[in-house]
Amino acid sequence: MYVPPQYQGDPESALAVVRAHPLATLTTNADPAPHATHLPIVIPADTDLLLSDGPRDLRGRRLIGHLNRANPHWAALAGGTDGTPALAIFSGPGSYLSPTVYQRVPAAPTWNFVSVHLRGTLRVLPQGQETLDVVRRTVEELEGRFGLGWDMTDSLDYFRRIVPAVGAFELHVEQVDGMFKLSQEQPEEVRGRAVRHFAPGSRGAHPELSCWMARAAAGDIRTHKGER
Fold first, then answer.
1. Read out DSSP for 90-148?
2. Which domains does the chain show, CATH number per domain?
3. pTM greater than the 0.90 cutoff
4. 138-154 confidence digits (pLDDT tens)
């Protein structure tokens, strides 16, 4: 992903996007076109502990996910005995920004957005308990962040019945690229108008986009300084 210097984000901001938007697009090379699957990718407990005790940086860490074994993408992954180079794309909030918000001419419209690309090596995990553990951790993470407090205990036997149809993997992250395109190139008064335009009270992902823009304006998203 091409990221102009003014839009690069620090590792901690990238981690925040991965946590808040776990539905990733997983892509790997194929002929005649790459495979791409939309699926949750989450942080396992051991990685979570390392992140809490050390640098909040996903480089050198592992994430986990799973998909249906009937998906042709799985057959391609399972054939990679030494691991498969992979790209996981996490899309944060984004929206069209009308020149009307700038209140000046000349101006051009744009699209503000947040996106994080993780590159690394994907390794398939064994069937059975390890795959079940990935499913359980995924449920634990997603229910804890986005659910209503559902307890999976009474459904574990059901999980065990369906897990043979599930393919689990771990992604060892080697490179993190964050694109935080949040009007950083605009004058302060224009950025302020854009932040207010997307502020709470508007619809969809706009409030979250407004928060990211306010963070960028305040310097809370530190430039990566060329470390990719």
1. EEEEEEEE-GGGTTSSS---EEEEEEEEEEEEEEEPPTTHHHHHHHHHHHHHHHHHHSS
2. 5-186 (2.30.110.10)
3. yes
4. 999 999 999 999 999 99
